[in-house]
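Structure representation.

___
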Amino acid sequence: MFLSRTPVLPTPEQALRGRPEPEFSVPERHTVLGNPLLGPYPEGLEVADFALGCFWGAERKFWQTEGVWTTLVGYQGGHTPNPVYEEVCSGLTGHAEVVRVVFDPSKVSYETLLKLFWESHDPTQGFRQGNDVGTQYRSAVYTHSPEQAERAEASREAYQKVLTASGYGEITTHVLPADETRPFYPAEAHHQQYLDKNPAGYCGIGGTGLSCPIGVAKAG
């Protein structure tokens, strides 16, 4: 019956209270890349945050990308401070499941990461991805600079044209700043690099099969 209901984001007043400090610790290093999960990060690296459904499969997409220095999963865009997984899945915190990507822009561009983001899920589904239903599975890009915001918006417009031409509806992806009103809360240890620890584990990530027309260098 819970899954049959139409998911609705809670208001700040309706959201769970949360807690002033996290209830758990986060592992020090990435199990695949070997680099630290939490900042501060080395000078010259940039941070990008993407929500594209269940973060287990989404994180693997990004750690397999050349130029990505580390990845971690967490919760963002909600109201409840320091949530735990069960609270997020209840729909009462307002958070999305998010992958934080720390990357070297001299090796991989933000546009390339956006292209991977768009092509790895269906951004027209609202509060779901495939069989995964809930507000935590919504599509979103949380940006860390005006330049990221501009590029994310441009990529959304470009991909909308491709989707529309193929009969898809409107993109529901939010592009919002990753500011103090949308802090990133790292998820529990067993969620970090989940599909490395559980190679046969669940992966609900799947795209539309349509290419996003960004991330290609211009001739000349």
